[in-house]
Structure formats: C-alpha cells, structure tokens
Write a sequence for this structure.
C-alpha cells in the first residue's frame, strides 16, 4: 500500500502534469474525465478537515483527500434528512422548489419521489452521464435506503450496473448479539428500540472484510481495476456512520471511554429556539448514562467509514484512472450528538446542515485548498456538468462551483438554503421551516412565524438567538429574500 506522503506527492504531481498538458476547464470539453462520486451517510463536522469537536475524530483518509484538492468548510445540505437531501443532489432540484422536504420509510417498488410533480420528469445525475456517453456504475447508499428497510429510492434504469442491486443497494450486514434493555438495567423508551436497538453503539468482533461497507467499496475498487471503453461515472455510497453505531472493535479501541468529551452544549439551549419535538431521545440517553458511550460509538463509526474511504482512494491511486478522474465527496447531512437535546438530524441548525464536501479536479484544484464560502449540495450537479463539458439541465437550481474550485479564496454572495418539514404541529399546522446560512449568519424562519438568528463570528455553537433584537432587523431582511417562495 502506498504511504500517505507518497500518495500526496504523486497526486500533486498528477495535478501539475494535468495543468501543464492543458487540461483546464476548456480541456474537459475535449477529453471526458471520469467521475468518482462518494456519498457518506450521517457524517457531521467532527472530522479532521473540519475539526468541530475536541478531541476530533481520527480521519486520516479524509485528511488525505482534503490535502489533494479543495475542502469546502461552509457546505450545507439542502434538507436535513436522507431522502430529500439525496434526491436533491441526484436531481439538482432544490427541496424548497419541489416541496420534497421530509423522509419516507416505505417503498412502492419504484422511487416514490417520482410522484412529485416537479421531480417526475427530471433526469438523474447518473442518467445524464449515461445519456452523454458515460458508463454509469453504482453501489451502496446513494439514494435513500436503509440496511433494515426492504426497499430503495434508487431508480434502477438510470444505471448500467448497480451492486448488489439498485433495489437493495446495501449488502448483508453484521450485528452483535443484543441484550434486552430490561436485562441490561436500562429504562423503557429507547428511541428506535424494541429488540432491534437501532439507536445504540456496540463493537463487533469481526474483521472489516465481513462488513457491508467493505464489500461495497471492494466492488467499486474492482471497477477501477477494469479497462473501460467509455469514461465512467462511479457512485459509491458508504453507510456508516449512520446508526446503529456497530463497527469492528478496533475502531472503538481508538477512543477510550475515559477520554470521551461531550460536545459544547447548554442545558437551557432550547429556551430561545424552536423545539424540534425530539427531546425524549436525549432524555433517555441521560437517564441511562449513555452520552459518552454513544459518542464513542459515533467516533468509532466515523473512523471506520474513513478507513473504507482510504481503501477506495488506494484503489483509484493504483488504477490507470488516477490522473483523469474527478473526485467529489459529500455527506447527505450532519448529525446532532446531544446538542440542543437532539440526536440524529432533522433540524435547521448547524449540527444538522453542515457537511463534509471535498473536490479533486485534475488541472483545476490546488492541493490543500480551503473554501469558506457558503455552498450547497445542490451545486454538485451543475458543477460536474461544467467540469465534464456536459450541458446543464434546466431542472438544476444549484450554482456552478467551478470558479471557487479555481479560486477558493473568493466569497460567494449567495447563501446556502436548507428546508425541512418537521414531524410536529403547532396550532394544528405542520411545522415547516428554512435556514439561510451565509458566510457569517444563520437565519431560520418557520411557518409559525418564529425566527432564529445566529452570528457565527461570535457564536459558533448557536447558543444565542438574536432574532428579536431590533438592531438585527436589517440582517434578517437581507437574508429573508433567500427563503423558498412558499415561506415568504
């Protein structure tokens, strides 16, 4: 296996060679570059390249990838749930326009999102590449699917090949022997509880090779080892660190329980903020003294998924395609680990919306670059089109990031907008809201009329809601214009 230092040196050399050969933006239109499209599930900003938790997660592969190209440090999902976020990435359509702003947990045998009036005739990203001479290959979780859910939102006809299948994209997974909560001395009411204990953390006494993500990545690497007659679009979806936090024991051993630190939090943090209606999750965690244990499980799962990424990057580096492949990595949304008394996602705060987002584009990106401009995951579709010389479908709402890839120090005026429909009602009305994240501010507006405003220059944890202070009216008015039309 190539050492990390040698890999970076080789990658930097490849970029320089590509640039000197004339493969700038215009060069892409004359030569079809491959695309390695990597999705990671439920990964927040605790990773090394974003370092929003101390001690930060041990993520050498993400560190390595960020040093190869551009790391977007202010990137946000378009909706903080698996289903709407992934559909928005794969169609380029804003959830604020389509209205697809919540999860689904049933499959009718075909993608339910196709029933949406705005989305029914859209061309998915993989299909668009197929239509333009690419071979579309996929594996793992790219559209919404769960390991315990017999169904998928992935359209099978949009791929040349999908492993294991588009309808069941995640292979068999290993689970520990679970002890009933009553026998373990735990209180009733575990979220996603029952015999399944899907909200939990357990080390597995198995090798990486037995895990589902390892099998997914191995299949992707096998495709990198083959000769392709056409350029390829290869999508690889890594399921961890999604719950349950069950990965091989060696990853738990990286984070001794006695060294675990809680994230920054305030006991009364919801006093000036909108309740997300999920406080009972945190209540159960505190009642059973599980906070540190679950943090350990989440960190272990991050490091496990990072190791899977490393295997994938090694596969590309050792392939014939290392010098002519664009890499884009994204996570579908962030993750609360007890902040604001919440676990998982499903909010409009930083913990839910901020995501890892990295690009490596031969001849365009400079190794080790960072961009702090606010960007959205719906920007992926038009950017890949521009870089590969494909036309941008009219359906796309996102912005082309090519100028930021070339010059990451620029600041884009447009903020990142995140929209979500909550599973709670106020005065009989389903709660819906949107967050507008600029370089400095986060403004949140709910259809109940409630507002939140946070100044990230002075309050990165979003502890103090400034929305009711008159002196910030001008800030709110400036950000309001970016809200989806149905909330204005």
């Amino acid at each position: 296996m190539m050492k990390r230092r040698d890999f970076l040196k080789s990658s930097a050399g490849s970029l320089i060679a590509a640039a000197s050969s004339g493969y700038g933006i215009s060069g892409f239109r004359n030569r079809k570059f491959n695309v390695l499209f990597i999705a990671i599930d439920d990964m927040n900003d605790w990773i090394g390249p974003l370092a929003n938790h101390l001690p930060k997660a041990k993520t050498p592969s993400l560190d390595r990838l960020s040093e190869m190209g551009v790391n977007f440090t202010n990137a946000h999902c378009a909706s903080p749930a698996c289903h709407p976020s992934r559909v928005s990435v794969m169609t380029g359509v804003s959830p604020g326009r389509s209205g697809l702003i919540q999860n689904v947990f049933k499959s009718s045998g075909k993608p339910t999102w196709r029933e949406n009036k705005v989305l029914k005739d859209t061309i998915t990203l993989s299909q668009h590449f197929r239509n333009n001479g690419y071979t579309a290959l996929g594996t793992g979780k790219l559209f919404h699917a769960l390991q315990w859910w017999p169904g998928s939102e992935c359209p099978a006809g949009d791929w040349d090949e999908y492993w294991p299948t588009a309808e069941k994209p995640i292979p068999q997974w290993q689970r520990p022997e679970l002890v009933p909560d009553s026998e373990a001395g735990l209180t009733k009411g575990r979220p996603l509880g029952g015999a399944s204990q899907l909200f939990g953390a357990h080390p597995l006494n198995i090798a990486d090779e037995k895990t589902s993500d390892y099998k997914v990545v191995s299949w992707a690497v096998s495709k990198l080892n083959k000769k392709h007659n056409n350029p390829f679009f290869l999508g690889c979806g890594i399921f961890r660190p999604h719950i349950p936090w069950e990965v091989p024991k060696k990853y738990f051993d990286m984070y001794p329980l006695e060294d675990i630190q809680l994230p920054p939090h305030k006991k009364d943090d919801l006093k000036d903020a909108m309740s997300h209606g999920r406080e009972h999750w945190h209540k159960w965690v505190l009642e059973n003294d599980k906070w540190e244990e679950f943090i350990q499980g989440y960190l272990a799962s991050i490091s496990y998924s990072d190791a899977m990424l490393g295997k994938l990057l090694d596969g590309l580096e050792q392939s014939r395609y290392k010098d002519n492949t664009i890499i884009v990595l994204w996570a579908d949304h962030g993750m609360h680990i007890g902040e604001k008394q919440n676990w998982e996602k499903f909010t409009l705060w930083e913990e839910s919306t901020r995501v890892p987002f990295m690009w490596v584009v031969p001849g365009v990106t400079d190794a080790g670059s960072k961009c702090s401009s606010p960007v959205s995951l719906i920007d992926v579709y038009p950017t890949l089109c521009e870089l590969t010389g494909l036309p941008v479908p009219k359906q796309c709402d996102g912005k082309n990031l090519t100028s930021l890839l070339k010059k990451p120090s620029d600041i884009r005026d447009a903020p990142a907008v995140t929209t979500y429909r909550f599973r709670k009602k106020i005065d009989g009305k389903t709660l819906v809201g949107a967050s507008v994240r600029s370089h400095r501010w986060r403004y949140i507006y709910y259809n109940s009329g409630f507002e939140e405003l946070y100044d990230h220059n002075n309050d990165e944890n979003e502890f103090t809601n400034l929305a009711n202070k008159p002196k910030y009216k001008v800030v709110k008015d400036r950000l309001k214009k970016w809200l989806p039309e149905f909330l204005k």
